[in-house]
Amino acid sequence: MMKSALLTPAEMKRADEITIDSGVPGIDLMECAGDHVARLARDMCGTEGRVLVVCGPGNNGGDGFVAAQCLQATGRQVDVVLLKEASSLTGDAAIAYSRMGFEGELTTTEGLRQKLLGCSLVIDALFGAGLSRPLQGEAEAFVSAINESGIPVLSVDLPSGLNGETGQVMGGEGGCAIRAERSVTFFRHKPGHYLIPGRVLCGRVDCVDIGIRENALSEIGPTTFINGPDVWSSFFRVPQLGGHKYDRGHAVIFGGPMMTSGAGRLAAGAALRAGAGLVTLVSPPSAVMANATQLTAVMLKSVKEAGGILELLKDPRLNAALIGPGYGLGDNARAAIQAILESDCALVLDADALTNFQHQPTELFDAIHKRAGPVVMTPHDGEFARLFPDLMGLPKLEKARQAALRSGAVLVLKGADTVIASPDGRAVINENAPAWLATAGSGDVLAGIVCAALAQKVSAFEAASMAVWLHGAAGAEVGPGLIAEDLVPALRLVIAKLVGIS
Ligand SMILES: NC(=O)C1=CN([C@@H]2O[C@H](COP(=O)(O)OP(=O)(O)OC[C@H]3O[C@@H](n4cnc5c(N)ncnc54)[C@H](OP(=O)(O)O)[C@@H]3O)[C@@H](O)[C@H]2O)[C@@H](O)CC1
Ligand SMILES: Nc1ncnc2c1ncn2[C@@H]1O[C@H](COP(=O)(O)OP(=O)(O)O)[C@@H](O)[C@H]1O
Ligand SMILES: [K+]
């Protein structure tokens, strides 16, 4: 799990300090960092062309001085420009500057523009983890000039102007940040490398070892992770010799009326493919015929009202339920959701199940807090806004964390950078989902996969994380032209690969 830890800039600073306190001089870490930066710079522009290293007033600039020195030592033409006078440098950055062996030039924005002419790579060593406020004045003008030049940029640690914790440009809409082709960070990625727009601004990110002590992580106790098998593979269930289908759980999908019945079918098919031993699609009588003509291994049931749902869920073998996709809105729908909330089964609430509570969210959250079984909610941003309007201004990680805490559910806040947050404070960011997944019905498939993992008795946070990853991997397997129906068969290939490697 610690392999996939993400560190906020403050946690990274702590990891630096722990390492330095254990006897490793900070300048050694910086020299290692700068050496990697130089190596990647050579990777980006080969042996030809001039490199411009733009250095800020802190240790990020220090990495830039080391990189400049390494590049010059291999015969590369290098220019170093400074945002602040060299005399104001302190600590390791001052040591790195003194060891560089040549002078950096304190320049104006116009001077920087002149230096940019004809160079083949810019190393952005203006600000990294120490960025404390939006860029303004000369710093902002430097960043704009670099972006406008169109020259490829390698950012040190983070594109300058980007908040490494939130993935947002410092200053929001009015702020500015470097748009890098590649970035190189140290020890562990930061959330901002994966959260949009950070992920776009960083380009490809390499994370390199600079000698930070691994055991610093146990002292720091990170709570944010990048999603992948490292987070949940020990929870992934492989059918056992001698087992039977009930060992794999019985998922119940509550589908909607005929005109929106496709959503329930997609979810039911996905739940079966993702490993639930049995899947029953429960629908109002009007949809039974439509479902029956299209489904074979999925079992069907017709239930009219909330009373029928309560009766049905008395069977303890029905251990996970999903309601929401194509379900419909109104008093009857709300009563059905409340009936399911009263049961003990593990529960996924998606789409209409969330929208149905937009005017009484606390009623929903109270019911979730009261029940014994776990709940996973899978809103996209629009659904999230209906339940948590006051959280909309927050950065995505914080939004998901606060919503999980308030609701008592594991929260899957969907999008290109889906965040899964647990009420206990843990969160993962997903990065394997291709944009081809932005298509009608894709979320219904995801909800079905989550339900399958819950049916297999995977804990809610790991179930949700596993499902989001499998969904993304299925999307990548299908690729261009993907429609939601393609995801279900693709899951078979994804699971085969997963079982093969685990
Ligand atoms: N030994 C180590 O610790 C290692 C560290 N490493 C490297 O160090 C980096 C972190 O270094 P750092 O903490 O010095 O912060 P950094 O990003 O250089 O910026 C701080 C400076 O910028 C200033 N400033 C901030 N915001 C500003 C703004 N908007 N506009 C203008 N100024 C602004 C701020 O001034 P102040 O806020 O006090 O006014 C301060 O002077 C990290 O990303 C990694 O690259 C690696 O070498 C590995 C070993
Ligand atoms: N740009 C994107 N890149 C990757 N995944 C995306 C992107 N946009 C949406 N997705 C994913 O596609 C799915 C869409 O779900 P949702 O909005 O509920 O669609 P629907 O209601 O049509 O099923 C979610 O899993 C979401 O994370
Ligand atoms: K930088």
Automatic annotation (TrEMBL):
Q: Which UniProt keywords apply?
A: ATP-binding, Isomerase, Lyase, Metal-binding, Multifunctional enzyme, NAD, NADP, Nucleotide-binding, Potassium
Q: What residues bind (6S)-NADPHX, as annotated?
A: 59-63, 128-134, 157, 263, 326, 380, 444
Binding residues for K(+): N60, D124, S160
Keyword Cell inner membrane assigned = no
- Cite the binding residues for AMP: K414, G415, A416, D417, T418, G443
Family matches, as InterPro entries: Carbohydrate_kinase_pred_CS, CARKD, Nnr, Ribokinase-like, YjeF_N_dom, YjeF_N_dom_sf
The EC number(s) given in the record are: 4.2.1.136, 5.1.99.6
Q: Where is the YjeF C-terminal domain?
A: 228-498
- Report the family membership: In the C-terminal section; belongs to the NnrD/CARKD family.
Q: Which PANTHER family match?
A: ATP-DEPENDENT (S)-NAD(P)H-HYDRATE DEHYDRATASE, ATP-DEPENDENT (S)-NAD(P)H-HYDRATE DEHYDRATASE FAMILY MEMBER
The protein's assembly and partners: Homotetramer.
Protein name (database record): Bifunctional NAD(P)H-hydrate repair enzyme
This chain's source organism reads Roseibium algae
